[in-house]
Structures are given as structure tokens and as C-alpha cells.
Design a protein that fits this description.
It is a single chain. By secondary structure, this protein is of the alpha/beta class. The protein folds into four domains: about 120 residues, Response regulator (Rossmann fold, 3-Layer(aba) Sandwich), CATH 3.40.50; about 160 residues, P-loop containing nucleotide triphosphate hydrolases (Rossmann fold), CATH 3.40.50.300; about 80 residues, Orthogonal Bundle (Helicase, Ruva Protein, domain 3); about 40 residues, Arc Repressor Mutant, subunit A, CATH 1.10.10. Helix content is about 45%, strand content about 15%. It contains 20 helices and 14 strands. Strands 2-1-3-4-5 form a five-stranded parallel sheet, sandwiched between helices. It has a five-stranded parallel sheet with strand order 7-10-13-6-14.
């Protein structure tokens, strides 16, 4: 077999400087990097040129977007791997991207190491057979709101999990929206979206009743069983069973659930024969199951059976940039329920955005709902709960978010390289260092310097 030539990469972004910077970051020996500033230009090139990898911004000026670029290059012969980058991600676009065959979906501002590793993985994929893509058939997304990197990762996991049948385990603190994630997985699954979604809180039902609720019973199987009753698994046939707070299950119930997952059948209380079940299991917990396994409180085999796909929901304090979006959504929902539109002042929104929210999204939603009831003319700082007003001020938060010295040094290195057109000698002179130190500095910060950087 003849050795292949350099890997060809196309960067698509309508911002010239962003295009050049991204091209520099992914450049390396054995790679040829080009760029296009319009989706239409990139799509035209897909018809007569082959690129091993295309990196495109999702939101581009003009009638076409990064999704159009993705579809054009995935339909090409041979298809290209495509990585989409977005600062305004959503569950819907993540599902569309994954179903259309995107290799990955990265949020802005992206981590340099992450994107370089993603590019390396994508280029390794080009030697493999092209992956199969699912048919597009999007359902309306559930109210998952967020544009931070943590939420975009959640969207990607939902998109990958939706059309599979393997169990999914959703972990996160109370109030982070685990049931919303479960419903989104169900709603976006092409085979299960029209089938039942049956939730059950395993921690809220006594053990003596939980088995009957899950598996059903026949008449006379215990005192009070005056008629046959279907359990959750039978009622959700073809759909999804959502087991909330699965970490609260007793050891005896864990054994019975494990048997259902292994055999694909349930036996109602008092029944002689088992019943086949086609329900997909999505479980959720705020308990650290790995710690519970280590302490012997949760079965190791059940943990691995439930967690074929694990989705970790970040707490609200780790994505405070999403709070304005959530507040806007909750205010609109309250307006639809009450017929009354209530505005919120910027200082009040800043205060909400700096509070740690130990109760997560649920606490924020309840707070907004209460404020709408009592603040008919608008929400100001004085209307907020005392705990929110006592939170660190905006200035303190801004101080915490200042970049580190290493980050400032990395940004300055990139700025100098851009200013001298990538010329290594001129960059070293401008920085007051020799070229060897420049190489070490670039390697430490993950900044690519191409071999032909000294042309001109």
C-alpha cells in the first residue's frame, strides 16, 4: 500500500483572526491546513476536494450554518470527519450534529489541549471505515438550558445515548435536572419517543410496595391484592423506565433489578411465568455509587450494568454563566402561567448569578416563581432572599475569574505569533528569548508552530 500524503484539514470560520488562530493551533508536521470564511465556499469545495478533517464554527454569517457544512462533507465521497465549534450550543443542535455524523462538538472558549487531542483522534479515525449514522427525526427538546462546556457535554451524551437501548445512569446533585435529561433521552430516541415514559422514585416507596410497583402482581398474591396489576416495566413496554434515586434501593431489590436487566424479563408477585420486557432503563442518583459499592451498600455488578452510559450533570455553581438563561426561561414560564410579565433588574440578575445555589436549578426555579408572585412591578436586589443577598458580590466573582499568569503568558505568545505572521525568529526576538526557549514555551502551552513558519 502506498503511504498517504499529508492529512488535509479545512477550518471554516467567518472571523479571519479566529480562522488563522485555529489553523495555527491544529498545524503540525504532516498536516496541510487551509481555511474558508463562508459556509458556501466550504460546501463548494466539498464537491471537488477531499479533506481528512473539517473544523467549522456552527454559527456562520449568511444563510448556511456549520450544520450545512457538516452535511456536505459527510455526504462527500469519501466522507470527511467534521468537528463543530459553538459558543451557543443547545441540546437540539447537539442531537442534529451527532445524528448527521459529527465527530465531536466543542464549546467556545475551547481548551487548546482538548481541541488538539480531538483533532488527533479525528485524523486517526480517517483510516477506519466510516461510521453509520442514525436517521434524523428530532423530537422537541425538553427544557434543558445552558451553553457552558459542562452542559454541551451533557447534550452530546444525550445525543449518543438516545437511539441506543443500553441502560443509562445519570448522576448529579439533587435539583440539577436528572429527570429532564432522562426525558430528553427518551424524546430524542427514534424508536421509543412515541412509547411510554414511566418514572418511579425508588427512594419514596417502601420496599414492601416497590417490588409490586416495579414488577406488578396478580390477584391474591398478598393481602389487599384484589386484582391483577401491571408493574412499571410491563406498562413501559417498548418505552423507558426511569428509576429515580436508584441508590436508595435495598440489597434485596438490587438483586431483583439486576435479574431483570440480565434476563430482559420480569416476574409479577405471585405469578408462575415471567413476562418479557422491552423497556429501556434510565436510572438516576445523587448518591456516590462508586463509594457505595466500596462500602458494600450497592452491588458492583448492578452498578456496571446500570452505568453502560454515564451522564454527569454539573451543579449550578459550576455553570453560573447559564443562570441568566435559566432566569429568563423561568420568568417566561411564570408569565405563561400567571398572565403577568415581571422584569428583573441587572443588579438583581448579577446577585442571582453569584449565589452558589446549593439546591441547584430547582432552588433557582422556586425562587423565581416566588419572586414573580410577590414582586408585581419588577424584581430588584432588595426583593431577593437574604441568602442570595449575602452571597459574594460581583466584584469578588470577577476577581476569582481573572486568568492565571500562565494563561496570560499563553495569550501573549499567541498574540506575538499572530503579529509576526508565525515567523519563529521574529517571535523569539519580540519576546526577548532564543528560538529553543520559544519551542519549549509553545510546547508547554500547547501552541502549534509549523515547520514553514519562517517563510518570508
Amino acid at each position: 500500500m502506498i503511504a498517504s500524503s499529508a492529512s488535509r484539514i479545512l477550518v471554516v470560520d467567518d472571523d479571519v483572526e479566529a480562522c488563522r488562530l485555529l489553523a495555527e493551533l491544529v498545524a503540525a508536521p504532516g498536516r496541510e491546513v487551509q481555511y474558508a470564511q463562508r459556509a458556501e465556499d466550504a460546501i463548494a469545495r466539498a464537491r471537488h476536494e477531499h479533506f481528512d478533517l473539517v473544523i467549522s464554527d456552527l454559527h456562520l454569517n449568511g444563510p448556511k450554518s456549520g450544520l450545512d457544512v457538516l452535511q456536505a462533507f459527510r455526504r462527500a465521497t469519501p466522507p470527511s470527519e467534521v468537528v463543530l465549534i459553538s459558543g451557543f450550543g443547545s441540546l437540539d443542535t447537539a442531537v442534529q450534529a451527532v445524528r448527521a455524523g459529527a465527530f465531536d462538538y466543542i464549546s467556545k472558549p475551547f481548551d487548546i489541549t482538548e481541541i488538539q487531542r480531538t483533532v488527533a483522534r479525528a485524523l486517526r479515525r480517517t483510516a477506519e471505515p466510516p461510521p453509520l449514522t442514525a436517521n434524523a427525526g428530532d423530537s422537541a427538546p425538553y427544557a434543558l438550558v445552558g451553553r457552558t462546556a459542562g452542559m454541551l457535554a451533557v447534550y452530546k451524551h444525550i445525543a449518543h445515548a438516545a437511539d441506543s437501548s443500553v441502560p443509562v445512569l445519570i448522576v448529579g446533585e439533587s435539583g440539577t435536572g436528572k429527570e429532564l435529561v432522562a426525558r430528553a433521552i427518551h424524546a430524542h430516541g427514534s424508536r421509543r419517543a412515541g412509547r411510554p415514559f414511566v418514572p418511579i422514585n425508588c427512594g419514596a416507596i417502601p420496599e414492601t410496595l416497590l417490588e409490586s410497583e416495579l414488577f406488578g402482581h396478580i390477584r391474591g398474591s398478598f393481602t389487599g391484592a384484589v386484582a391483577d396489576r401491571k408493574g412499571v416495566f410491563e406498562g413501559a413496554h417498548g418505552g423507558t423506565v426511569f428509576l429515580d434515586e436508584v441508590g436508595e434501593m435495598s440489597p434485596a431489590m438490587q438483586v431483583k433489578l439486576l435479574r431483570v436487566l440480565q434476563d430482559g424479563e420480569v416476574r409479577p408477585l405471585g405469578a408462575v411465568r415471567a413476562i418479557q420486557t422491552e423497556a429501556r432503563v434510565v436510572a438516576a442518583t445523587n448518591v456516590d455509587l462508586e463509594h457505595a459499592v466500596a462500602e458494600g451498600r450497592f452491588r458492583r455488578d448492578l452498578y456496571f450494568r446500570l452505568g453502560v452510559i454515564v451522564i454527569r450533570l454539573p451543579p449550578l455553581r459550576e455553570r453560573c454563566e447559564d443562570i441568566p438563561l435559566l432566569v429568563d426561561q423561568f420568568l417566561r414560564q411564570a408569565a405563561a402561567r400567571t398572565g403577568r410579565t415581571v422584569a428583573i433588574s441587572d443588579p438583581a440578575l448579577d446577585a442571582l448569578s453569584t449565589y452558589s445555589w446549593p439546591g441547584n436549578v430547582r432552588e433557582l426555579e422556586n425562587t423565581i416563581e416566588r419572586l414573580v408572585v410577590f414582586c408585581r412591578t419588577g424584581i430588584d436586589v432588595d426583593d431577593l432572599p437574604p441568602a442570595v443577598n449575602a452571597a459574594p458580590g460581583v466584584e469578588e466573582r470577577l476577581f476569582r475569574d481573572l486568568p492565571t499568569l500562565d494563561e496570560m503568558e499563553r495569550r501573549y505568545l499567541v498574540h506575538v505569533l499572530q503579529a509576526v505572521g508565525g515567523n519563529r525568529t521574529r517571535a523569539a526576538d519580540a519576546l526577548g528569548i532564543d528560538r529553543r526557549t520559544l519551542y519549549r514555551m509553545a510546547e508547554r502551552f500547547g501552541v502549534g508552530i509549523t515547520d514553514d513558519a519562517d517563510r518570508g
